[in-house]
């Protein structure tokens, strides 16, 4: 079996083109330009890369963008003050605080300080609650990107056995909630596995669709999946450097062996990653539309 490669790069490109047309309509018909503010605390290299990608995506779509680079020594009080200013700024529709934060700043307190109507990462407790009851304003970006990958690749989820490996608040828990909803691109039977799951392979072998967000390189091997499985690999792990000195990135799945059994599989890189950024742009546009009552 030759697996279909699900290209997040190509699907994200399609979504950006759709958003481009929406943004043109907002600008010409409503004199409204969506605005996104990103906050980076400290100089974590991975965070800087991610924020740079998000900035480029916003610029490409002509979304108004602010970036706030803050020292690692910033106090919680000063960070909260900045968020308060952005909450009150009418040019800003979306606020993204890049995680993780320094240990002296409680992440939950910072997320809760963001106006839920500007929480384009979908992490505020109010938005998490709306997701749980099936009435979300914003879906978390990575889980939403996973759902879009499935839907736009023509992969049926209704009635399917979906196994999620990982229970983080960012990916595992919300994607499980999304796929349980009574709607298109969901209606699945969902099992969530984690670090304390006994006999992980007994669960993953049952999966029609396997979503991996374990944070461990190549933890899923070919003997852990069944023939014809659809594999969505969320992991991004650096395992050394190539001969050219560039970092070698791999997923949580042993891609080379699992692809021989899978019906469809996402690559790393080029799978879920581009979708996360596209969904952030989608949420920012939605937040702007909500301000004029057309979302």
By CATH, the topology of the largest domain is: Rossmann fold
CATH evolutionary superfamily of the largest domain: NAD(P)-binding Rossmann-like Domain
Helix run count? 10
Backbone CA Rg: 19 Å
General shape:
globular
Low-confidence stretches: none
What is the β-strand count? Answer: 11
SSE ordering: EHEHEHEHHHEHEHEEEEHEH
What do you see in this structure?
The chain has 295 residues and is α/β, with parallel strands linked by helices. The protein folds into 2 domains: 31-119, Leucine Dehydrogenase, chain A, domain 1 (Rossmann fold); 141-273, NAD(P)-binding Rossmann-like Domain (Rossmann fold), CATH 3.40.50. The protein has 10 helices and 11 strands. The strands form 3 sheets. Strands 1-11-8-7-5-6 form a 6-stranded parallel sheet. Strands 3-2-4 form a 3-stranded parallel sheet, sandwiched between helices. Helix 1 packs parallel to helix 10 (272-291), helix 6 packs across helix 7 (172-180) and helix 6 packs across helix 10. The chain is globular.
What are the key terms here?
three-stranded parallel beta sheet; 295 residues; single chain; Rossmann fold; 2 domains; alpha/beta; six-stranded parallel beta sheet
């Amino acid at each position: 079996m030759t697996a279909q490669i699900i290209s997040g790069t190509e699907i994200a490109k399609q979504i950006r083109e759709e958003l481009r047309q929406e943004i043109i309509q907002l600008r010409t018909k409503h004199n409204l330009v969506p605005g996104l503010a990103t906050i980076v605390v400290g100089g974590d290299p991975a965070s800087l890369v991610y924020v740079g990608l998000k900035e480029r995506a916003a610029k490409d779509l002509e979304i108004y963008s602010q970036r706030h680079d803050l020292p690692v020594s910033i106090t919680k009080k000063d960070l909260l003050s900045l968020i308060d200013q952005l909450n009150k700024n009418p040019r800003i529709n979306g606020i993204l605080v890049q995680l993780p934060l320094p240990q002296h700043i409680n992440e939950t307190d910072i997320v809760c300080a963001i106006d839920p109507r500007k929480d384009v990462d979908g992490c505020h407790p109010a938005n998490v609650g709306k997701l749980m009851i099936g009435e979300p304003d914003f879906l978390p970006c990575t889980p939403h990107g996973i759902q879009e990958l499935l839907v736009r690749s023509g992969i049926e989820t209704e009635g399917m056995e979906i196994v999620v490996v990982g229970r983080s608040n960012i990916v595992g828990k919300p994607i499980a909630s999304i796929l349980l909803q009574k709607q298109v691109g969901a209606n699945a039977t969902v099992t969530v596995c984690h670090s304390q799951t006994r006999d992980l392979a007994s669960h993953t072998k049952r999966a029609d669709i396997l979503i991996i967000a374990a944070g461990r390189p190549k933890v899923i091997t070919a003997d852990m999946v069944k023939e014809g499985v659809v594999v969505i690999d969320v992991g991004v792990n650096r395992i050394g450097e190539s001969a050219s000195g560039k970092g070698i990135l791999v997923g949580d799945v042993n891609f080379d062996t699992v692809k021989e059994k899978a019906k469809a599989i996402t690559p790393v890189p080029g799978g879920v990653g581009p979708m996360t950024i596209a969904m952030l742009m989608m949420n920012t546009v939605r937040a702007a539309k909500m301000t004029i009552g057309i979302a």
